[in-house]
């Protein structure tokens, strides 16, 4: 029988309502987000932030979705020019119920990586590799060479805990410049993984921009009067 | 063969359209919600309420979702400061088709508890324990000691009825001050559980605040002109 | 191997774009909806209609969702006072590709019946019984006796076609006054049932009113300043 | 163990952020969409476009959803007069990481075909046949004879790669006038298919128009005062 208890230190149900004194860093997570965001983008004044976080013995894992971006086309419409993602943030424990957010490690899941995670069977595992030289750029130059190339490489693996009881989520970050390797590992219960799977399945069409395409109902209605036939937009028979 | 009949006393398909005379308490459910809400929050004037209720022989179970709350950040954006939840309300039968709403017992499911419930296999069971001393507070002090501590403890268990035919949902409330133990139990058919599973899966990203993050499309579009590159917000490569 | 072909008379992919000449009745489906609606409700001027219809040899089956209704409370908020439903409309074939819409039979699925249908296993069947004397009323008197009582009884059964290839959907309408029994049966392919299951799963939280509760984000944000503590609305610890 | 790597040429995670130099055609995909759209519909000024694309060795496959269209009824409401669809666009590779978008082949999935695809078991396959003479028309004449009849026939097949590792998606286009047969085939990993299944399941209620029916909450609320009973709209008991 599965048992969940609010007496256990699993604090996943509390957004980020942790006391500041729990953090060894001087910034709370919210303040960090708020500050870095404020510097970069004046449009943030109306942005909303929400994460799902699981706090475990050696590290914590927080996930939050990131919207895709669209750019205007000459026709007046707009097209997605960068996929959204789901950001995983790991931060190590530095004492009982204390986590050091300044030592966080980030991993951004692409739509296909989200697809891999949500279709994972109970006994299956998966692994993703990221290299900053392959990062997509705001200038639409996906194959540009970043100054970080070769310096930092990241991998994320998700492996079953056994007996259909959840997964280990592990991040490894190799920094060739600093000659360091960071590893953080967070065990995820079956219930917590169900939350992630459901939240990621919900997020997927949104980070792909499909919700914006499909819920855009502002277009005036066609009149029901017969009209001169002309080549159909959106038809598979016109090229 | 599964048979559902509208002649049976299972009244789950009727929102709360029960005649007042069915209630032994002097308040209908709606009036109770409306009254208590009106006293506490002036913003309720535009709030909406909808529940799914199953009425059974010894007790009834009603579930409804509760929105998360966000607070303004200095940057002008906002962050979730309290998760939403799914509230289970149990109330005992006091006669044929009569239920005493004044003797109701409440149990609020956190996102992780919702995850546990929606991933429950046909032969699996789960159990959750709640203690008021662990309740999250509007002042962001999750570990504060409540004056109720130790007085009241609640547990919720969901156990299979057998032969893939549904579940028993049981609540036990121990009140040490009043030296009482209340138990209410409601059998849920497979069809009713399918409604709950679907509704809870729908509700989960909303009580986590993710729908508000992901459907917030008001941000102005990026221009398609090349621009000076600057550190990317939302990138896994910037810290 | 499953094969679907647009050459077959399965016209499910064409909303209601059937030529009027296909109908033996004098009204097209759209006109029928539009006319009956126009007489009853002045608010319909902005209503939208969309159905999913499968046309088969002996009969056609069309399904469309119906919104729940809310009523104002004294507090200014509103509560759901009648569940929505998913309406099934059957109409018999009266020739090749001709259907008589005036002989239609209706069956409205409640949320729990929708739950039963979407959780149906490949080899399972289900059956629902409706009696007009049990219909919910706009006056919130669910147990009132209708003048139709005993006159008309309806049942809907869904039974597997075998080999995981779909279902038969059958409606039987007994009219004691007219001493008639009408039966209509429509075979549904696995692909068509997948459309129905997905559409019904999408519709379910909407006909329960939960989407309106959960996507109502107009409430002003809480200020982040500490404030005097008061009993929490929505808490399981307050009664 | 499943492994996904960003070093591989699988570029599915990058919307359409491919350098123009990768394309042998003179138009990028976005420009093609923007131009053809601009000529046909003045309402496009607010339209949004987003696709999911997988680039493989011999060809690429891009999918994007297309909204249904509604027309005004005399009552003032509106009804769906053409289903939406999900468009598959195939284009062949003409070198390493070079694709010729001018040689694209289109295939528009109807709601039922989407239902077939999202219910496909790991070892199952499906096949769809399209003939332009059967295309739905903006004039609501589904059985009209197109001037293209018999000239072009298309088929799409989806077959398992084996060992639960994904599918082959194949398009064949027979052009009797030009005496040509074009075939394009794209292998889809299990993770990529999970993205498609999730995105198509999300899109399905939208291309059926159900989201517009179900999220249309503008109707004034019913007053809670008792009123004269009249025949219920949306009741299965009124005809």
UniProtKB/TrEMBL annotation, chains A, B, C, D:
What does the similarity note say? Belongs to the Whirly family.
Assigned keywords, A-Z = Transit peptide
Q: Which InterPro entries does the protein's record reference?
A: ssDNA-bd_transcriptional_reg (IPR009044), Whirly (IPR013742)
GO biological-process terms attached to the record:
defense response; regulation of DNA-templated transcription
Q: Name one Pfam family in it.
A: Whirly
Q: Name one GO molecular function term.
A: single-stranded DNA binding
> What is the protein's given name?
Single-stranded DNA-bindig protein WHY2, mitochondrial
């Amino acid at each position: 029988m599965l048992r969940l208890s609010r007496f256990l230190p699993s604090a996943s149900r509390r957004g980020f309502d942790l006391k500041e004194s729990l953090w060894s860093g001087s910034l709370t997570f919210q303040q960090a987000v708020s500050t870095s965001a404020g510097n970069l983008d004046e449009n943030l004044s109306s942005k909303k932030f929400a994460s799902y976080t699981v706090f475990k013995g050696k590290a914590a894992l927080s996930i939050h979705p990131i919207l895709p971006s669209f750019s205007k086309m000459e026709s007046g419409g707009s097209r997605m020019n960068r996929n959204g993602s789901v950001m995983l943030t790991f931060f190590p424990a530095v004492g009982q119920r204390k986590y050091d957010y300044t030592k966080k490690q980030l991993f951004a899941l692409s739509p296909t990586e989200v697809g891999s995670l949500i279709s994972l069977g109970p006994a299956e595992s998966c692994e993703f590799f990221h290299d900053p030289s392959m990062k997509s750029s705001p200038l639409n130059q996906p194959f540009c060479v970043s100054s970080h190339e070769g310096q930092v490489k990241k991998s994320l693996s998700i492996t079953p805990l056994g007996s259909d009881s959840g997964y280990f989520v592990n991040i490894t970050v190799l920094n060739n410049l600093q000659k360091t390797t960071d590893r953080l590992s967070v065990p995820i219960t079956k219930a917590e993984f169900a939350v992630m799977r459901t939240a990621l399945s919900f997020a997927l069409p949104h980070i792909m921009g499909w919700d914006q395409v499909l819920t855009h109902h502002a277009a005036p209605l066609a009149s029901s009067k017969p009209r001169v036939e002309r080549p159909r937009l959106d038809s598979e028979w016109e090229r």
